Amino acid sequence: xxxxxxxxxxxxxxxxxxxxxxxxxxxxxxxxxxxxxxxxxxxxxxxxxxxxxxxxxxxxxxxxxxxxxxxxxxxxxxxxxxxxxxxxxxxxxxxxxxxxxxxxxxxxxxxxxxxxxxxxxxxxxxxxxxxxxxxxxxxxxxxxxxxxxxxxxxxxxxxxxxxxxxxxxxxxxxxxxxxxxxxxxxxxxxxxxxxxxxxxxxxxxxxxxxxxxxxxxxxxxxxxxxxxxxxxxxxxxxxxxxxxxxxxxxxxxxxxxxxxxxxxxxxxxxxxxxxxxxxxxxxxxxxxxxxxxxxxxxxxxxxxxxxxxxxxxxxxxxxxxxxxxxxxxxxxxxxxxxxxxxxxxxxxxxxxxxxxxxx
Length: 359
Ligand SMILES: Nc1ncnc2c1ncn2[C@@H]1O[C@H](COP(=O)(O)OP(=O)(O)OP(=O)(O)O)[C@@H](O)[C@H]1O
Ligand SMILES: [Mg+2]
What we know:
The chain is of the alpha+beta class.
């Protein structure tokens, strides 16, 4: 795969505050890359550096093989969609879509063609003569995406484009964005703090913390093989159960509980005994008929039950330790019950307690 965007040893500081430090990231041609992380971790800063809206302190940015580190935003072949759509209120949708092209002196019939194509892709043809004030939030957001689309760029940059929308619309537009990417096959770099958006849209996710990339991988890798405790905790809702214990002779031990890590894929073939944290996803704990076939079987004491319709979240105690279990929506379980549970160590994650890295 050829690279569409390459970020090399990027540093960015605001005065004395280092926001990005020696950041490296290669984004493939046609890839949908999501920058995911909590507020303040530097996602927008990184995107703005790629867009040319911020001057980098050190390092280089290449787009399509060209060093664009010092190029103007308009020379970079990028289109950007922000969280706030910032449409011109006095112009029609069509006016908003064509404004940038007129300024760039694109011939009139070419403008007509591009606007018509973007309107068709985004299904906003019936809205072309309306002003933004007469559009719903979702429709406005589609116009904002359209404004990037008409520019016919190689790389699209999105900064939390859906976060101002209500929950249902977010899901609808998320699906449309994925469809759009399947259709256009452009490179897309998408910033969000919403893990569901990241998991559903991305070819690869870069999980960021404090201006650094903690893990770069496919949604499957990020979910199943989190590289450290931070990523493990950040991805998944409800988050992983974490239990602190000891790794002794290849088994996890805590109080009188012993979990041989049979089938677990250790990062290094020989892993010495040490204090560890085991992570077990609530949805990977089995109950009922399935317990019999599970490699490890325990009993949990049910504290509280949250029926959520599609599934049931059970807050329990495993020995002395809080432990969440996700059961299906039809589960009939009550507080005070003892619940037989099954755990498969091959689906768990083990972390060194002091380095917090995956073992
Ligand atoms: N112009 C600025 N001057 C000084 N510090 C800034 C400036 N812009 C951003 N920062 C700081 O840089 C850090 C990263 O900000 P950034 O906007 O990239 O975060 P983010 O990951 O996009 O967060 P959010 O999810 O809240 O949008 C923050 O600590 C922020 O306070
Ligand atoms: Mg931001």
